[in-house]
Write a structure and sequence with these properties.
With 398 residues, the protein is an alpha+beta fold. The chain is built from 10 helices and 18 strands. Helix 3 links the parallel strand 3 and strand 4.
């Protein structure tokens, strides 16, 4: 996707270059280590995920119609006891977002464990599982279907294998162009297809093939619970009164300019700028740097400033972010209602291949009586709330 500091092995490229292993040994490095350089894996015609490589079929679908949604997280145990009974380790990345679980096989969960998983995802925003060998695309779809009706994307790639139209393929090959100059860093932050009337909730991404450790391609998630909590009470109330337009038009335009079929006509939908999660009952910002185009009911200047401010909040609020370094077979499961996420560049010429499955959820709503994450955790554990008065004297030394 974008050039990085990598050394291409001789069997992968026509460029005349020394074999990296040989060159490393010649300098006496017993760990075969050179800063910022990683071996590029060769992929030949026997690539085992050939049926999951991307295609863009010339087909069209009708507009989506409303579906009933029953959130499985509401059935989960408050302490996640069924899911965690099988775990060998569980830990949070940071207090606001992100949890990793070891010892759990996603392909063989009981319904009670699935309900706990949904509840944990809604609570923590994103949950990570390593080396899920048994969790193939059929198992991934089956778990997604347990949570709700699967969403089929109108423009992105789907697998070559027929019958997987509800699977989104992420694929960057060895010869893919460098696209980093095409996007601002804030624009890359997004939650998926929020322009739909019923945007997704539980979303899974499995990396099939990717860069080795240190080769780049990490994904970042940002908690919108935490983004809401970072605002002053006055700003919270103001944003709660607003709705935002989420548009698919730019995405569809780009597909058409590339000569690809837009399988479903693009839509623009108004959603509340602050929403309530039905599982946790917590308020979160519901803002998407990638798809929000306007704030409804305010002058354009005001709208532009709100969007710019929230872009900055999402992209730079490091306490609300978690970064995940993938290994092959790893799975991330997140609540698309709660988190924005962003890919990262710098892994070319490594191949990066992943498959995503998500289910349609409820239409976003705001319950004015709902609490924030910070409010509830402060009450439950006595955690002090953040000071939001920025007018004091500061002496920053670092």
């Amino acid at each position: 996707m974008a050039p990085g500091l990598v050394e291409t092995a001789t069997e992968v490229t026509q460029v005349a270059t020394k074999d990296l292993h040989t060159s490393l040994k010649s300098i006496g490095n017993k760990h075969n280590y050179v800063p910022g350089r990683t071996i590029v894996k060769k992929h030949d015609e026997t690539y085992k995920y050939e049926d999951l490589r991307p295609r863009f079929p010339d087909i069209t679908w009708p507009a989506l119609t409303p579906v009933e949604y029953q959130d499985k997280g509401l059935l989960g145990d408050a302490n996640f006891k069924h899911l965690l009974a099988a775990a060998t380790d569980v830990f949070d990345y940071v207090p606001k977002v992100g949890t990793e679980i070891h010892g759990v096989d996603l392909a063989n969960l009981t319904d009670l464990q699935k309900n706990d998983l949904a509840r944990l995802i809604a609570t923590r925003g994103v949950v990570f599982f390593r080396d899920q060998k048994n969790f193939g695309i059929d198992e991934q779809r089956a778990l997604g279907k347990y949570f709700g009706e699967l969403h089929s994307h109108a423009t992105t790639a789907m697998p070559r294998r027929e019958g997987l139209e509800d699977v989104h393929v992420v694929f960057t090959g060895e010869d893919s162009p460098d696209l980093r100059a095409m996007f601002t860093p804030t624009f890359l932050w997004h939650s998926d297809v929020t322009y739909e009337e019923q945007p997704p909730s539980y979303t899974s991404l499995k990396v099939l093939t990717g860069p080795p450790r240190g080769g780049g391609g990490d994904t970042l998630w940002s908690s919108q619970y935490a983004a809401y909590d970072a605002l002053s009470p006055a700003m919270q109330k103001y944003l709660e009164s607003l709705t935002a337009l989420h548009s698919a038009e730019l995405q569809a335009q780009g597909s058409r300019e590339l000569g690809r079929t837009v399988r479903r006509e693009p839509v623009t939908t108004a959603h509340p700028l602050v929403r309530t999660n039905p599982v946790t009952g917590w308020k979160s910002l519901f803002f998407n740097p990638g798809f929000v185009t306007k704030i409804v009911g305010v002058p354009k200047t005001e709208s532009d400033h709100i969007i710019g401010f929230l872009n900055e909040l999402v992209a730079t609020g490091v306490e609300a972010q978690v970064r995940f370094q993938w290994g092959e077979g790893d799975v991330a499961f997140w609540d698309n209602r709660v988190c924005n996420h962003s890919a990262s560049y710098g892994f070319a010429p490594h191949r990066r291949h992943a498959v995503r499955v998500c289910c349609r959820a409820e239409r976003p709503y705001l319950d004015p009586e709902s609490k924030s994450q910070e409010e509830e955790l402060a009450e439950r554990y006595g955690i002090p709330k953040a000071n939001k008065d920025g007018s004091g004297v500061v002496n920053y030394n670092d």
